[in-house]
Amino acid sequence: MKDNFSIVYEGWKPEKQKLREALCTLGNGYIATRGAAEESRSDDVNYPGTYLAGGFNRAKTELSGKMIENEDFVNFPNWLCLNFRAEGGAWLNLHSQKILAYRQRLDMKCGILMREFRVEDEDGRITAITSKRIVSMRDKHIAVIHWSLTPENWSGKIEFRSGLDGNVINDNVARYRELENRHLEPQGTEKIDDNAIFLFVSTRQSRIFMAQAARTSLYHNESEMSPVITTNQREGYIEQVLRVELEEGKTYTLEKVVGIYTSRDRAISEPGVEAKKSIKRAGRFEEISFRHEEALKTLWNRADIGIINGDSNQQLLRLHIFHLLQTVSTNIIGMDVGVPSRGLHGEGYRGHIFWDELYIFPFLNLRFPDLTRSLLMYRYYRIEEARFAAKEDGKKGAMYPWQSGSNGREETQVVHLNPQSGNWIPDNTHLQRHINSAIAYNIWNYYLTTEDQQFLSYFGAEMFLSIAQFWESMTSYNEEKDRYEIHGVVGPDEYHTSYPDSDQLGLNNNAYTNVMAAWVMQKALHIVEIIEKSRRRELMKELHIQETDLELWQDISTKMYVPFIEEDIIAQFEGYEKLDEFPWEEYRNKYENIHRLDRVLENEGDSPNRYKASKQADVLMLFYLFTKTEIQRIFKNLGIEYSEEMVSKSIAYYRERTSHGSTLSRVVFSWILLKYDQQQSWDNFETVLISDFEDIQGGTTPEGIHLGAMAGSLDLVQRAFLGLEVGEEALWIDPPMLDHLKKISLRVQYRRHWIAVSLDDKKLTITFETGWKNEVKIGVKGKIFEFKLGEVREFLLN
Ligand code: BGC
Prior knowledge:
This is Glycoside hydrolase family 65 protein. Keywords: Glycosyltransferase, Hydrolase, Transferase. The protein has 798 residues and is of the alpha+beta class. It has three domains: 14-301, Glycoside hydrolase, family 65, N-terminal domain (Beta-galactosidase, Chain A, domain 5, Distorted Sandwich), CATH 2.70.98.40; 382-659, Glycosyltransferase (Alpha/alpha barrel); 743-796. It has 20 helices and 34 strands. The strands form nine sheets. Strands 1, 8, 9, 10, 11, 13, 14, 15, 16 and 19 form a ten-stranded antiparallel beta sheet that branches. α6 crosses α9 and α8 runs antiparallel to α9. The chain is globular. The chain starts with 5 loop residues before the first strand and ends with a strand.
């Protein structure tokens, strides 16, 4: 049987290296390092990047006489640096030396990155190396490299060089190269003792101090060798060179144990003290790896999803689970960090936090609710900044930024570079106010899955009601229509940021934004009802909410305007129908890749604002986020008749007009097409599965994975293909009849009960494994059953 827990790359392929590095990133939620070779440096082929959760720094650049500031995701010191050379020879370099064999393997079950290779140097000396690397999931401050090295046809002196390099810049994304990319300032280096070194740096503006300590030891037959060691240091860099005599055919082991601490850590005296202490206590590779594997076992036990439909699909699903856990693991519970949309895997989108949580939390809620809570707190801690932003904009409540980083101010870049034309273009995507509804949606769904009343009534309600206040102040009443409207926004489809030939930014009545705002109002009223009365009084007072506001919310939630193109087709925004049709065929023939139509058109002096062409699902998000019952209810409230025809016609309309310039888009299409066209739904799902693995956008994955799409694929299996739905009174499971998936098995946590579910083409088996209470309600095909602890039930499917 094929090993579905590994990704194996045969052969050294320089042109694929940066993609492999992103996909072989090892992390533990706290810190992550790309899967670059230990001996590599940043160049055209390699990019060894190390990122810290929440590790941002701001820097200014002058562009055409204008100062702009960006907040970047800092590439922290490279702790990998490890190399060797035989006496008189050159340092190991895969670019210039003869590679006799090369194999790289990411073992996702054990969280180990392995490289096995044989090289021949200029003097014909052949050396075999097996390298193993771990970023510990248990001891989040510890990482370790293990090399086994065999001189196959030579004996003699060898030198190992083991370093810590703080002289790194942010250079992962070519488009950002004209911008200031120096973010670190050296603070000192130190030889701790004969085989241990220390590096101290800080970020230049945000003053995050990072300490790295490394201990390098050599062994033969398990006994420690006594190499001659020299320490070299210069500003921002320190290394130790270990010299020793090797004998032909024997295998030697080198271990480099690294401890990493920052000034943002909890329970520390000072990062340097802790880093030095940590490498003394960490033990050897075997010990670290044992603890690490145990921690991963626990995570896999909660998070794994088994499917039967081709080995590669199973493998890719696990790759997605793995990278989700490398980015946000239980290690970050309680830390002040959010979910970076590109993982901790690269510098794309500068580590910023967008609305992608919408695709990520449904998976986390059902397995790691404490983690979701912690990630929601990232938003709560930034509510003051959101209040300030709303006030500055003349609005009430809290207006969360489209892109969020360190302190919650708007981090969307002011201008971005179109690599196709070389032009710097104003970026108006910050007008995506729908991010606010996404946060509200996430709060509500976390509550629904966990029944965490403490969270909802305290932090959750404060954020939720502040967002409702914001929407209230965003709406204006249109007497003629007798409807409320929202003007000057951008929907999820970022291609449309204004009307053609208009100087005014934003669009009016983006259907998705309007319906979501109406939903927020409805839910806010419900939350006010269900929270404890004294808390309700407190909140109304603190947030200055009057009874008349509640009445207004009620009114808005029933009278929000939703534009239609013609009966049954929802318009993406008011006036969408007046735009020109886009000549898709012509452009598909003209360009190899038209995912990023915005860039293609700008390069031609044109703009997507003129066309009926969308980057990603926009209106259709509504049918992705809400269950049929829920969306029917929302529409009914709005006085709009919901019909299957409306859904299917809207799907057909936008399906032909979407370029899928965001990997998120396919997730939504797979979901909404399931009922109408299983083959198409499945094709979209498989595209999501290969998005990063095959880098289908041609060059984006080396700049970081697409976490929303990765987690979205997992959510598709549970919510779409298994038919799982978190309800108020029960956890519902209503599997559709599937043509493609033969088997699904997974475990979920619903309101503190662990439930195992497995599905094959004949039956659905549900086991109530363990939980805080002795009963749990599970609904199958419309009927609710009360499961007792330990109970297993089978449901035959026909
Ligand atoms: C998409 C956004 C997404 C962002 C980060 C953009 O390309 O259009 O919807 O939030 O990437 O993943």
